[in-house]
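TOPIC: backbone geometry
CONTENTS: sequence, structure tokens:
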Amino acid sequence: MICDHEAAREKVWMETEIGAAKKHPYCRKCGTLKNVSSDRGRKISHFLIVLSKLRKVYRLTDVQIRLIVKELESREDFCDLWWVSYTAQRKVFKEIVRKYAGVSEEVFEKLF
């Protein structure tokens, strides 16, 4: 079930990646902490553009594209921009694309 996140008025203290404490907003409905880092998630359209570029290089079929897109859309954690990071999205995207097409790491680095 996807939550329509609503920020609570108060914020909670949480340690960041570098060890400093920072106040984070959270959803008053489900309790999910909001990603306040500069590594914010992107909409699925960003990854569809990357997939389009990849299609030209690797000559992916329509079936492969459809399977990749359906699996991306089915992952709630991929599309929930409230908390997901871009780094996590890229990792999931690479895993799914590799599942349906043998794409090397070097090609991904050129596309992102």
Observations:
- The first strand starts at residue 12 and ends at 15.
- The beta strands are 12-15, 21-24.
- Helices lie at 44-58, 62-74, 76-79, 86-100, 105-111.
- The mean pLDDT is 84.
